[in-house]
Design a protein that fits this description.
The chain is an alpha/beta fold. The protein has helices spanning 66-73, 124-127, 168-187, 206-215, 227-235, 250-257, 274-282, 304-309, 322-333, 349-357; strands at 26-32, 39-45, 54-64, 84-85, 90-97, 110-113, 116-118, 138-139, 151-155, 160-161, 195-199, 219-224, 240-243, 265-268, 288-291, 313-316, 341-345, 364-368. Strands 3, 5, 6, 9, 10, 17 and 18 form a 7-stranded mixed beta sheet that branches. A 6-stranded parallel beta sheet has the order 13-12-11-14-15-16, with helices on both faces. The structure holds zinc ion (ZN) (2 copies).
């Protein structure tokens, strides 16, 4: 998928709407009532009572992720809340606090609502920083209502602070897409100067992965197809671009691009098995395949002999924790990572899902929640 528009930062990073902290009685929310949808935008009451630790966020922008479509279609091996307000790339400001929430955020803070809405912070996983694996983790726009609404209740301790220099529309896609690829690159455990292959480098996740990898000092082998994606990948700092449609031997060409041995890691977010299995062929011995993204029904086949003989690592990377989100937003705020996206209104969400389902969405969509 190619990003369709490159948005430039407006003169001020602060949206005038960030200064309006009053809470109306009613607001707009995109809701679906049953598995399979449809989703509709309705006017509903704003949550009046906040429980301990909750904050009310005035959402101004929210990215749309493929996961939101999976949640509506119900095609994952997991159950979600119904009826549901989707969305987990919300960017806005805190407008009200429940008891205890003031320990973490204050009114007027610019914050992000990410996929992990909450976790216990006490279990073995949380203590070690693996908050996404907490058995009590709540997910925004899945087990709790998310960011496709003007006023969203979320958990103060898991809100992500958004730096003042980062516009909220730029911040939104970082909260899932950006953090996800940033975390996946961390899981590859590379050092500066090592090679990483990124299939789908011109796509929604891929173009962010290229930039985070370049920012970390890795040498990027971008894999995608077409001149537009080549131009984008090269502009973002990829060292080599390999067109998978025109190459005679993808595995050999990737190995050649990394001195003959193959890259030290591949970060693969494809929905089909082929890209993962190819990566097992082209990464060098002791290399790491990082599987990221969440296709519900894809199995990958790894040969045991060569996995052992070549000492390969196959790692699943889910999403980031609170610290990963802070780091990913900070890198974006310093201009090292820019998201390409197209802005539409919340009212256009049903059409976005329709187009996403038929593969017609190229690049990230960010919704202006007021429109
Ligand atoms: Zn997502
Ligand atoms: Zn926990």
């Amino acid at each position: 998928m190619a990003p369709t528009a490159s948005n430039t930062t407006s003169s001020s990073a602060i949206d005038p709407r960030e200064k309006k902290l009053d809470v109306p009685g009613q607001h707009k929310a995109a809701i679906f009532d049953k598995k399979g949808g449809p989703v509709s935008v309705r006017t509903v009451p704003v949550a009046r009572e906040l429980k301990h630790g909750e904050a009310l966020v005035r959402v101004i922008y929210s990215g749309v992720c493929h996961t939101d479509l999976h949640a509506m279609l119900g095609d994952w091996p997991l159950d979600n809340k119904l009826p549901l307000v989707g969305g987990h790339e919300g960017a806005g400001v805190v407008v009200a606090l429940g008891e205890g929430a003031e320990e973490f955020v204050k009114i007027g803070d610019r914050v992000g609502i990410k996929w992990i809405a909450d976790s216990c912070l006490k279990c073995d996983f949380c203590r070690r920083g693996f908050e996404p694996n907490c058995p009590e983790a709540q997910c925004s726009g899945f087990t709790v209502d998310g960011s496709f609404q003007q006023y969203a209740v979320s958990y103060a301790r898991h809100l992500s602070p958004i730096p003042d220099s980062l516009p909220l529309d730029q911040a939104a896609p970082i909260l899932c897409a950006g953090v996800t690829v940033y975390k996946a690159l961390k899981e590859a455990q590379l050092t500066p100067g090592q090679f990483v292959a990124i299939p789908g480098a011109g796509g929604g996740l891929g173009h962010l992965a290229v930039q985070y990898a370049v920012a970390a000092g890795y040498r990027v082998i971008a894999i995608d197809t077409g001149n537009d994606k080549r131009a984008l990948a090269e502009k973002l700092g990829a060292e080599t671009f390999i067109d998978f449609k025109t190459t005679k031997n993808l595995v050999e060409e990737i190995k050649q691009a990394s001195g003959g041995l193959g890259p030290h890691a591949a970060v693969v977010a494809a929905s089909g098995a082929a890209a993962y299995e190819q990566a097992l062929d082209y990464i060098r011995s002791r290399g790491t395949l990082v599987a990221v993204g969440l296709p519900g029904g894809t199995d990958i086949k790894a040969n045991v002999f060569f996995t052992v003989f070549r000492s390969l690592r196959i790692v699943g990377s889910y999403v980031g924790n609170r610290q990963d989100a802070v780091e990913a937003l900070d890198i974006a705020a310093r201009g090292k990572v820019r998201t390409s996206f197209k802005t539409l209104g919340l009212s256009e969400l049903p059409k976005v899902y329709e187009d996403m389902n038929s593969g017609k969405i190229a690049g990230r969509i960010v919704l202006d929640i007021d429109k």
